[in-house]
Amino acid sequence: MTAVEQTAPALKEIFNAERLKHIATEMTAVYPRFNTKAFLKMANEGLADLSIMQRMARVSECLYAVLPLGYDESLEVLRTLAPRLNSSFVSISLPHYVAMYGAHDFEQSMDALKYFTAFGSSEFAIRHFLRSDLQRSLTLMQQWSLDDNEHVRRLASEGCRPRLPWSFRLEQIQADPTLAASILDNLKADESLYVRKSVANHLNDITKDHPDWVLDLIEGWPLDNKHTAWIAKHALRSLIKQGNQRALAVIGASGKAEVEMVGVKVEPAVIRLGEKISLSFTMKSTVSESQRLVIDYAIDYVKANGGTSAKVFKLKALTLPGKATEFVSRSQQIKELTTRKHYVGKHTVHILVNGERLASTSFEILA
């Protein structure tokens, strides 16, 4: 079997023909007059050429086309359908229905998004309402950030992320992060990891445009709270990889690392695509005081034009006692990804400690 044949099914296959039948079956169970034949014919047409988000939208469009009901009645049917669907991602087609066909009824539509988010997420759908009525939507989402349900609280943060993947950017919030600041402040010590991840990702989005604003915000937070400290660390991950000294200081790792790097190597030094490399080295403290260190590594990937593009990877954070040594190793498979294509040639690996490049080695990819 070839490497291609062994790869996992494409993500878009969440919405395959079998899943469409499941949706039709469950729709018939909650609305016996549902036109299964018409739904499946429309939903399956050209399915192979559609991306996952296009397939998600297709489901909403087909539901709208075959349901002979007004918006209010359709929402009641879809509310009953939601807990019967066997995939949380498939459930996203229901809030998408609201975004496409409920713009005329803000209050009912937002209440539906709040309900549907517990079954998958309304994060994509709510952005349409933010785009059309920003202040009204944010005011409601601020209330949601205090809700008892973690899914609703997460929606308050995730839905207004400036750079949410797989969605359009919210240019107004991207330009002025203070617009959603009260939502983030309400969630800065949330007990739910699901919510904290969203807050951290929202803040990491903002660091791409307003790094100092994020640092000012986080430096004013009570970082002795373990939940808040967790958010801060993950929110600043991009700045930490860049060696931003303020970001490093927040996690207690500021200043130059006083260490000696020994035995830095990649094995094997020559590989073919699909094989693993192992990076290893020893760090020796050169001072008597303990040090808080953040260790990353960067690979200068060879590009098609012969140039290189660096990608930084997290290794570990640790407190190194005075005059102590620490052996560090990491394995990584060098394989094709949807986000990265590999090319033959010499790939340089750099060791970064507290944002400073302290050692380098390399490996070669053969044709």
Describe the structure.
- By secondary structure, the chain is of the alpha+beta class.
- It folds into two domains: 3-250, Serine Threonine Protein Phosphatase 5, Tetratricopeptide repeat (Alpha Horseshoe); 259-366, Immunoglobulins (Immunoglobulin-like).
- It contains 17 helices and eight strands.
- Strand 7 (345-353) and strand 8 (356-366) form a beta hairpin.
- It is globular and about 75 Å long.
- It starts with a helix and ends with a strand.
- Mean pLDDT is 95; it is low at 1-7.
Main attributes of the structure:
367 residues, alpha+beta, Serine Threonine Protein Phosphatase 5, Tetratricopeptide repeat, Immunoglobulin-like, 2 domains, 5-stranded mixed sheet, 3-stranded antiparallel sheet, 8 strands, 43% helix, globular, disordered N terminus
Helix content: 40-55%
Mean pLDDT rating: 95
**Order of strands in the sheet with most strands:** 2-8-7-4-5
Tell me the distance between the termini.
Answer: 20 Å
State the CATH class of the largest domain.
Answer: Mainly Alpha
| Number of discrete helical segments | 17
What is the global morphology? Answer: globular
Instruction: Give the structural class.
Output: alpha+beta
Proportion of strand residues: 15-25%
What is the name of the CATH topology of the largest domain?
A: Serine Threonine Protein Phosphatase 5, Tetratricopeptide repeat
What's the main sheet like?
5 strands, mixed
CATH architecture of the largest domain: Alpha Horseshoe
Radius of gyration: 25 Å
Number of strands: 8
Whole-number tally of structural domains: 2
Tell me the quaternary state.
single chain
**CATH homologous superfamily annotation of the largest domain:** ARM repeat domains
Which residue ranges are poorly predicted, with pLDDT under 50 across at least 5 consecutive positions? 1-7
The secondary-structure element order is HHHHHHHHHHHHHHHHHEEEEEEEE
